[in-house]
Amino acid sequence: MLTGKQKRYLRAKAHHLNPIFQVGKGGVNENMIKQISEALEARELFKVSILQNCEDTKETVAEELIKGTGAELVQIIGHTIVLYKESKENKQIQLP
User: Fold this and answer.
1) Fold (CATH) for 4-84
2) Which residues contact 79 (CB under 8 A, 6 or more apart)?
3) Closest CA relative to residue 77, chosen from 53, 95, 59
4) Which of 53, 49, 45 is nearest to 81 (CA)?
5) Strand 45-50 relative to strand 80-84: parallel, antiparallel, unpaired?
6) Strand 21-23 versus strand 45-50 pairing type
7) Residue ranges per domain, the chain?
8) Residue 43 and residue 9: Cα distance in Å, rounded?
9) Cα–Cα distance for residue pair 54/7, rounded to 1 Å
């Protein structure tokens, strides 16, 4: 689990990032979870955007992504979810 200090640090790092995934009408599916897992391994920290036509709530989408990828939820802000997962081979972020 991330501490409050670590979440603050990650929020600051994620601030300038653009969302690289979008969850739309279909919601979260296996293929998306696979792609997000691979992207987490490569980047460790990124944003997922939830489109207006998504039928699930932001919280539901975040929960499904966390369960599927094993990532940590940094924050949900507006229609954007910030996820973090420590990379096994490509570690770039040093948490405080």
Assistant:
1) Translation Initiation Factor IF3 (3.30.110)
2) 49, 50, 51, 52, 58
3) 59
4) 49
5) antiparallel
6) parallel
7) 4-84
8) 16
9) 26
Cα(79)–Cα(37) distance, integer angstroms: 20
- Please answer whether residues 85 and 39 qualify as being in contact, where contact means their C-beta atoms are separated by less than 8 angstroms: no
C-alpha–C-alpha distance, residues 29 and 92, integer Å: 28
> What pLDDT score was predicted for residue 36?
94
Query: Using CA atoms, how far apart are residues 69 and 86, in angstroms rounded to an integer?
Result: 11
Q: Note down pLDDT in tens along the chain; length 96 residues.
A: 889 999 999 999 999 999 999 999 999 999 999 999 999 999 999 999 999 999 999 999 999 999 999 999 999 999 999 999 998 887 888 888
pLDDT value for 81:
96
pTM: 0.92
- The pLDDT score that the predictor gives to residue 20 is 93
Can you name the residues that pair with 86 across neighbouring β-strands?
none
* Residue position matching structure tokens 């949900």: 76
